[in-house]
Amino acid sequence: MLHLKCYKKIGLFYKAACFFSIGVFLFYICEKILIYKYYWPVDTAYATKTIEGMYKEKENIDVLVVGTSHMMDAFIPLELYEDYGIISYNAATASQPINISYFLLKEAAKNNEIKIFIYDIGSLLSQQEWWGPVMDSAPLNLNKIEIALDIAKKDNELTFGEVILPIKRQHERWKTLNKTDFEICRQKPLYSKGYNLYTDMDWAKYSVEEMNNIAASLRENEYFGCEYSNGVYSITEGENKEPVSVSEDDLKWLIKMKDFCEEREIEFICTKIPSVYQPELYRSAWTMEKNDLAKSICSENQITYCDMLYEGETGINYETDFVDGGMHLNYLGGRKVTDYLGRYLVENYTLPKRTNAQWDCDLELYQEVRQLALLQLDFDFTSYMNRIANEFQDQVILIAVSYDMAAGLSQEDIQLLQRMGLQTDFRDKINDSYVAVIDHGAVKYENISNRKINYSGTSGNIPFYLESSGYFSGAKASIMVNDIEYAVNGRGINIVVYDDEKNMLYDSVRFDTYSEIHYAERTARRTECVRNLETFLMEKN
Question: What is the pTM of this model?
Answer without folding.
Answer: 0.88
